[in-house]
Specification:
It comes from Microbulbifer donghaiensis. By secondary structure, the protein is α+β, with helices and mostly antiparallel strands. About 25% of the residues lie in helices and about 30% in strands.
Length: about 180
């Protein structure tokens, strides 16, 4: 028998073993104020993060969590330095373990999540998942900076004439040493 899913705020900490035994499904939100690392990585978070998690066991008997999450964030465009919206959607398949060695023994389709105490910090693990799914470089799809603001190729002839030759001093020294 399964407990009906919850649609309220997800608990910050859970005992994964108990949830796996009950084959529990959790559906809810994470308050973005509690995700400090994500708040530092983005310009802003638009609304709460929605997550769905299904606890269970796979055919090999490993404790697993499968799920997905969705959120909207504002990132700084690396071209124009203005905020731009980004949808973050992630699907994940975790294997709950209690040590790094157990994590190495998991099948390749499961990402190890270490529950190092009696409870798993669900907010931290979901925050990790969001951070891993942020784009490495954010920029608007459309042209947000006019092309004429970029300079390609060599500089104009005027700029070259205004510069002094950096080897002029060496020429003078060479010339004075030949006179002696």
């Amino acid at each position: 028998m399964s407990i009906p899913p919850s649609t309220a705020a997800l608990p910050k900490s859970v005992d994964a073993r108990k949830l796996v035994q009950r084959e529990q499904q959790l559906i809810g939100t994470l308050p973005h104020e509690s995700l400090e690392r994500l708040n530092a990585a983005v310009e802003s978070i638009d609304g709460d993060i929605r997550a769905e998690l299904q606890f269970g066991r796979n055919l090999q008997g490993h404790l697993t969590v499968s799920g997905k999450l969705h959120c909207q964030v504002q990132l700084e465009c690396q071209r124009c330095l203005q905020p731009m919206p980004e949808q973050v959607e992630a699907e994940f398949h975790w294997g709950i373990v209690w040590s790094e060695e157990q994590g190495k023994a998991l099948p390749k389709d499961l990402d190890p999540v270490v529950q190092d105490s009696d409870e798993l910090n669900l907010y931290q693990v979901l925050e990790d998942e969001i951070l891993l799914n942020l784009p490495m470089v954010a920029y608007h799809e459309q042209e947000c900076v006019a092309r004429d603001r970029f300079q390609f190729g060599e500089e104009s002839a005027e700029a070259g004439e205004q510069r002094e030759n950096p080897f002029k001093v060496l020429e003078q020294l060479k010339g004075s040493s030949n006179k002696s």
